[in-house]
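@channel sequence for tomorrow's demo:
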Amino acid sequence: MIVGAVNDDDEPILQLSIAGQTWPAIVDTGFNGDLELPERLRPSVSPRYLCRTLSLLAAGQTIVEDTYLVDFPFDGQIVTVEATFVQDDRILLGTHFLRGYRLEINFVARTVLLERVASP
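structure tokens (generated this afternoon):
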């Protein structure tokens, strides 16, 4: 189980340890991909170019960006997932990335719980 918190901006945040540093990761339920990573993490996740991807953002904005397969440390294991890189210091965790987990966000208590669930 991974425990996080809802921050002052009402974002559900998990703190992840990657490459010897703690990174804030926003659980983004409006993002149906895997990961958006800070450019500074690129050398730590062994990116392998996959393709150019057209992404639909809020308010109907679309962007084309490079997508990579990366080896990402998460919940005690290394998982291979799709990621894009941006000039930011936060990680976005998308719903596709979390498909094997139960997510509980309690905005009143300001808590976030992420629990791995066995497949039926």
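heads up for whoever presents: The mean pLDDT is 92.
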